[in-house]
Amino acid sequence: MRDMNNVFHLAIPARDLDEAYTFYVEKLGCKLARRYADRITLDFFGDQVVCHLSQDYDQEPKMYPRHFGVTFRDRTQFDNLYKLAKQREIPFFHDMSLRFEGLIEEHLTFFLIDPSNNLLEFKYYHDERMMY
């Protein structure tokens, strides 16, 4: 089992680091940890996302199978992020929807898209036991 003192790490392509900085830090509210000529390292909701400068990114992104994000335990935090995304006009790939309605795994979800076509999914399960 993961010790919560440890941090999950994900590396993603970024076509332009200034665009990535604007999206993740200025709009989404992530904390910049480090910046180098070829990458930026971010505190992404308590985990580490590294945006590596690359021209090898999805030209036509699809939700499945490749995306990443956060599953919230707290509905208020989920709602606040959704409101922030709307207020700051962060681009949505797919607006909020309800998945698996009426089933135990019912959850709310929305997808954002960053300037390099990386898809970010944010979820909230009505039954916390379904998070995994």
UniProtKB/TrEMBL annotation:
Query: Pfam families from the entry?
Result: Glyoxalase
**According to the lineage, what is the superkingdom?**
Bacteria
Gene3D superfamilies on file: 2,3-Dihydroxybiphenyl 1,2-Dioxygenase, domain 1 (3.10.180.10)
User: InterPro entries recorded for this chain?
Assistant: Glyas_Bleomycin-R_OHBP_Dase, Glyas_Fos-R_dOase_dom, VOC_core
Q: What is this protein called?
A: VOC family protein
